[in-house]
Design brief:
The chain is mainly alpha-helical. It contains 29 helices and 9 strands. It has helices at 3-6, 19-44, 62-91, 105-116, 125-153, 163-194, 197-200, 205-231, 244-248, 256-280, 288-297, 332-340, 346-350, 352-355, 362-375, 404-408, 415-419, 426-439, 446-457, 497-502, 504-519, 536-540, 544-561, 571-580, 593-603, 633-640, 677-686, 698-710, 723-757; strands at 479-481, 493-495, 524-526, 565-568, 589-592, 616-619, 646-648, 692-695, 719-722.
Length: 763
């Protein structure tokens, strides 16, 4: 035999047990344990002799017990096989670094607890409480059954389910059943009577089946208990079964024969309901009781939440396809996401594109991708949620079900990711599909092509002369344009960004910020014509090639200058510099200008003691500052430092804030379908009665200012401006007011001085 066939190659990867194989082993072990638990008591004959206890399988004939202990183990093994088939689908995905290590173990456990304790669901109090009742009620009932079975297996001297313990056990069991059934009834009312939009549009027959099976489990459990207690003569200690005991009094006049028969049928019905539960568990959305906690445990990743998945250097790679067009292009974690979805529609309810009439529905992206994964699997499995029979899927191509129009409608605001109670990363999937559309098919809105050409030729999406980048600073003191060929001698590099350099509105922001920094004694250094676009719009629209073409020279320049600290005026620049440039070797301490202002105000370095505005102001959260980078407090503190100001919040604020409509390169695309996102957001700002709207992002400034003006509001009625502009105006207004108010005092002091000199005072 050839030696090469006997000895594996030194770099050959060792064979590992795959997750789907572990699932089969686990469920088989549980099934066999259940089988043994049925056989063992028949051999040992251990019984509980205590007067206060419950006899297992009382009034249940031996043949029925045999069927029970045969069907349940077989069904558990079948469930394992069904889950294994689903897990094979996840294994089709590309690698994703989600290993548990000492650095992330604590966070993983925290995320897992947040899920299993229903904390993520309770963000929506009503729905969260309803699910909690069903979830915890079911777990408690499962625990009650398990405790009974454990006690059943133990020798006489070790049995514990008797006396006071049994009374407590009976009380807890009935309470759990009541909570469980209450949750089920609430769910039925919510889905079929109240019918909120996000629930109504995706109600399927399987929802009725799931709720029906759960309802049957609860009702038959009480029915079996009712007839069992009556059959046993209603012993005093069973009063602790505060539901079953009163029910038993309704039938205690029946004959023993009738009670025995009814008890057996109710017991069989209860077991049948549980068998139905096991049967639908891997075939319906009910599977999420397993997949969702797993998904939450794996939520933490090896990159910041604002960063896209890194790609290989496109100048050097030999890859033939980029982005995601088929199921296998997603990572295994992204495929797990598709089976973890609870179909709750919270993502849909907060999507600004969907709310304004666009074709995008985040939940549909998950469901459609999941349907393609399920149908193209080997073997094929059921779709995440039942689909119409007319819909057919012939291949593993994601775009067989998902349209380019849906993908381009996304503003990448991350609201869907933020609100998802089970940690599904929807935005990442959209980014990867955009990469394919942009790089492989050049299938992007035509107006986006203009921005691409501008970034490629003029290094900014406005398409303006790069030599004019520093013109905003003409005549301003304390602003130094540095040569990138020299080491940076300043503490901070001020990254102005394309909007702050070229857009007329945002030039005012840059100038205001420069004045505030000068007041605080911070010497500002800028790159001027040497600063290029960070590439945010290119990357978020899928053009990774253009992003790398812009980002790599920027990183080389910043590293060559020894830059350590950067002030970013634009949240998109902040996110790219802070979270994504490290993928290219650029590691900097990046701070948003509102964060720096907050620090300067708190330290007293920036004097705002006279800053005054007698107006009402509302702050609009930038998605890339807020949800992508968790900066919510700093801008509000800066605005709150102004005396006389009344701060009001829009109905959608903070983590629930609504996008301005310009993120994800939507700034450069036309919006022709439905209501414009910025008009909707502007209407929300106007509805607060605010006379000023504060922004912290150049795109938000442009979009909201246009939206407010489009609503017929002039600047003297509602002024939209960056936080820095409002602050500077407040400081200057306060100083002017102070000087006006102090003028008479100065005159009086002069008069007194002249009187001392004997000089006559003016009348």
């Amino acid at each position: 035999m050839n030696a090469a066939t006997e000895t594996p190659a030194p770099d050959a990867e060792p064979k590992r047990v795959k997750p789907h194989q572990l699932a089969i082993v686990l469920f088989t072990a549980v099934g066999l344990f259940t089988l043994v638990s049925g056989i063992l008591p028949q051999v040992t004959k251990w019984e509980n002799d205590n007067a206060v206890h419950r006899t297992v399988f009382v009034n249940i004939p031996g043949p029925i017990q045999v069927v029970f202990y045969t069907v349940i183990p077989v069904l558990l093994i079948w469930v394992g096989i069904m889950f294994a088939n689903r897990m094979k689908n996840w294994e089709r995905g590309a690698p994703s670094q989600r290993r548990t290590n000492t650095k992330n173990a604590k966070q993983r456990l925290k995320d897992f607890r947040a899920g299993v304790y229903m904390q993520t669901l309770l963000r929506d109090a009503g729905a969260g409480l309803m699910h909690s009742m069903i979830y915890f009620g079911f777990l408690a009932l499962l625990g009650v059954t398990t405790v009974l079975e454990v006690d059943h297996q133990l020798p006489e001297q070790l049995k514990f389910l008797h006396g006071t313990t049994y009374k407590a056990y009976a009380f807890i069991g009935d309470l759990a059943g009541l909570v469980f059934l209450g949750g089920i009834v609430w769910a039925v009312v919510r889905r079929y009577v109240q019918r909120p939009y996000r629930i109504r549009i995706k109600s399927k027959p399987e929802h009725a089946i799931i709720l029906g099976v759960f309802f049957a489990i609860g009702v038959t459990g009480y029915g079996a208990e009712m007839f069992r207690i009556a059959l046993e003569g209603g012993p005093e200690y069973e009063k602790w079964s505060f539901i079953g005991y009163p029910l038993s009094t309704l039938v205690d006049g029946m004959s023993q024969s009738a009670l025995s028969t009814w008890h057996q049928w109710w017991w069989i019905g209860h077991v049948a309901a549980f068998v139905a539960f096991l049967a639908i568990l891997p075939l319906t959305m009910l599977r999420h009781i397993f997949t969702s906690p797993i998904n939450l445990y794996l939520k933490d990743k090896d990159r910041p939440k604002g960063a896209m998945r890194p790609m290989a250097n496109l100048m050097e790679t030999e890859l033939e396809s980029f982005g995601a067009s088929v199921v296998e292009d997603f990572t295994w974690k992204q495929l797990l996401d598709l089976d973890a979805c609870t179909m709750c529609g919270r993502c849909t309810s907060v999507c600004p594109a969907h709310a304004t009439g666009k074709s995008l529905d985040p939940r549909e992206i998950v469901l459609k991708a999941g349907a393609v994964m399920a149908a193209s699997g080997s073997p094929a499995v059921s779709a995440p949620l039942g689909e119409d029979k007319e819909i057919t899927i012939s291949a593993n191509n994601l775009f067989e079900r998902i349209t380019a129009e849906e993908i381009w409608a996304c503003t990448t605001c991350k609201a869907c990711d933020e609100i998802c109670p089970v940690g599904i990363e929807i935005t990442d999937k959209i980014f990867d599909m955009r990469r394919y559309l942009s790089l492989m098919e050049s299938n992007f809105p035509p107006e986006l092509g203009n921005a691409y050409r501008a970034m490629e030729n003029q290094f900014n999406p406005w398409g303006l002369n790069q030599g004019e980048r520093g013109d905003w600073a003409d005549g301003m003191d304390g602003v130094t344009i540095v040569d990138p060929g020299e080491a940076l001698q300043h503490e901070y590099l001020y990254w102005v960004g394309c909007a702050g350099s070229f857009d007329d509105k945002n030039k005012k922001v840059t100038q205001a910020m420069a004045q505030l920094l000068r007041r605080a004694g911070i010497d500002v250094a800028i790159l001027g014509p040497s600063e290029m676009c960070t590439g945010d719009s290119a990357r978020r629209s899928g053009n990774e090639y253009l992003f790398q073409m812009l980002a790599q020279p920027n990183v080389e320049m910043l590293n060559g200058m020894g830059v350590k600290k950067i002030i970013a005026q634009c949240p998109h620049c902040l996110n790219t510099l802070k979270n994504e440039y490290p993928q290219l070797g650029g590691n900097y301490e990046v701070i948003h200008h509102t964060q720096l202002l907050e620090q300067l105000i708190e330290s007293g370095q920036l004097d705002v003691s006279q800053a005054t505005l007698e107006e009402r102001i509302t702050y609009h959260d930038s998605c890339y500052l807020g949800r992508h980078n968790d900066v919510y407090v700093a801008p509000r503190k800066v605005v709150g430092a102004i005396k006389g100001i009344e701060v009001v919040e829009m109905s959608l604020n903070g983590t629930k804030g609504m996008c301005c409509g310009a993120g994800g390169a939507r700034m450069w695309m036309e919006e022709n379908t439905g209501t414009k996102v910025n008009d909707e957001r502007a209407a929300q700002a106007i509805s607060t009665g605010a006379t000023r709207v504060a922004t912290a992002c150049p795109f938000c400034y442009i979009m909201l200012d246009d939206g407010v003006k489009g609503a017929g509001k002039e600047e003297h009625e509602v002024k939209v401006a960056d936080v820095s502009i409002h602050l500077l105006e407040a400081i200057e207004a306060g100083e002017a007011k102070f000087h006006e108010g102090s003028a008479p005092l100065v005159d009086a002091e002069l008069a007194a001085a002249k009187l001392d000199d004997g000089t006559p005072t003016p009348t």
